[in-house]
Amino acid sequence: MELSVVRENAILSIEFELGEIAEDNTLSSIGSGCQRMTGEYRSLAICRLLMDADSDAFYHDLIRSAHTRLYYLSRCHSEKKVQNRRLMASVSEPFFDALASTQWKLASDIALLSSQIWWLEEEYEDDFCYAHFLHGYIAFSANSRAGLSAVLNQFENALQGAPSARLNLCKSFLAGDQRGFDEAFEQLV
User: Fold this and answer.
1) What is the pTM of this model?
2) pLDDT tens digit string along 131-174?
3) Using CA of residue 112, residue 130, residue 63, residue 23, what is the dihedral sign?
4) For an engineered disulfide with 10, which of 5, 16, 40, 139 has Cβ 3.0 to 4.6 Å away?
5) Distance from CA of residue 106 to its chain's centroid?
6) d(CA 83, CA 76)
7) Could you give the angle at the alpha carbon of 44 between the alpha carbons of 40 and 49, nearest 5°?
């Protein structure tokens, strides 16, 4: 598919979802639309970078993705609807969008409002552990190393001995190991 078509589809989809949210702004009706919008903002950001070499627009659309996620998470918490699978930690792309656009407070806010429990029937445990560790690393800097170590132990147990660049990346963060990080990041990419 041509990038111009991807860009146009993303713009149309975002406009449609915004219209739907304006029409029926109940929490139960906006969850899937917000999730779709985060992906469309990310697609639009990539198109702006590749087609126009516009890094400012790239970052702004990533920030819009993250703000859309934060809006939804905030609504869930303010309306006391936190038993909701859409709050899963592993819905982490908008969190990464905030990180990629160097919006540390935004990333931290997303982390703080994301689920801190594993949704057994809804997400893979290793996906949860990866996101939960990074959320803790960004948002809970006051937490002890033991808390993050416990998440890594859960992560390692969930993998049942399978190799994981994501686990190695997290371990290198916790250890402050630049060389280990470089190797894990290369594997991850």
Assistant:
1) 0.92
2) 999 999 998 765 567 789 999 999 999 999 999 999 999 999 99
3) negative
4) 40
5) 11
6) 9
7) 150
